[in-house]
Design brief:
By secondary structure, the protein is of the alpha+beta class. The protein folds into two domains: about 1-20 and about 205-225; about 30-185, Sandwich (Immunoglobulin-like). It has helices at about 1-20, 205-225, and strands at about 30, 40-45, 50-55, 70-75, 85-90, 95, 120-130, 135-145, 155-160, 175-180, 180-185. The strands form two sheets. Strands 6-5-8-3-2-1-11 form a seven-stranded antiparallel β-sheet, with no helix packed on it. A four-stranded antiparallel β-sheet has the order 7-4-9-10, with no helix packed on it. Strand 2 and strand 3 form a beta hairpin.
């Protein structure tokens, strides 16, 4: 009898734990870089299929001679860009369609072969003058499908700076780094399904779920004592 009671209590606890929301990709998730050569990059998921991309600071290091933003590309968004499309709006970009390509050392204006279908590249045209600095540029990027950023390292960014508008060669580093989650919005999953969290964060359990867990534990103890 005691074994049956223990089994009932264990089942109640398991059901209670199952009621606690699991980690989900969050609307409001923020991915922010450490300063790199004077610049900080920040991605924010504002809704299921939209990211904002902010570039802030003063160009330094091997970017110090740059005057223009030429292009940037993003990947590790959980999307197949052989079918998914995206448009960007911001400084120098009005409904700018992204291409399924990426930057590279030899091909800096969205012509590199790279590793599509995982990436989307935006060639700012005409190249945008970032002076005077410090800059604070924000691009809103709308995708044709819901984001599913399942890589815990966050979105991967490459960016090309130019000395003169129309240059065919970049200035300094392409950056080429993932930008990790800084804070989670705890919103609903953008992918519409279960599975792994796209943000890597675990939202706080709901209070009613915690209460249910507590009641289940108390019930188990009560029944065990009564049967004893």
């Amino acid at each position: 009898m005691k074994c049956q009671v223990s089994l009932i209590a264990s089942s109640a606890i398991a059901l209670a734990l199952a009621a606690i929301p699991s980690a989900q990709a969050g609307i409001g998730d923020v991915y922010a870089s450490a300063p790199f050569q004077g610049i900080t990059f920040t991605f924010t998921q504002t809704d299921a299929d939209t990211l904002t991309f902010n570039i802030a600071g003063t160009l330094g290091g091997d970017w110090s001679t740059a005057n223009y933003l030429g292009a940037f590309d993003i990947k590790d968004l959980g999307l197949d860009f052989s079918t998914v499309t995206a448009t960007a709006n911001g400084p120098g970009a009005v409904n700018l369609a992204g291409v399924n390509d990426q930057l590279s050392a030899a091909n800096i204006l969205c012509t590199g072969g790279g590793s599509p279908p995982g990436g989307i590249c935006f060639n700012i045209s005409p190249d945008f003058n970032v002076n005077p600095q410090p800059m604070n540029l924000t691009y809103t990027i709308d995708f044709s499908s819901a984001l599913n950023i399942s890589n815990p390292a966050g979105p991967h960014l490459q960016i090309a700076w130019l000395v003169n508008a129309g240059d065919s060669s970049k200035v300094g580093s392409l950056y080429s780094q993932n930008i990790a989650l800084s804070s989670g919005g705890g919103g609903a999953s953008s992918s519409g399904g279960g599975g792994a969290s796209s943000s890597g964060t675990i939202p706080e359990p709901r209070s009613d779920s915690l209460a249910f867990v507590g009641l289940a534990l108390l019930a188990g103890v009560f029944w065990m004592r009564r049967q004893a």
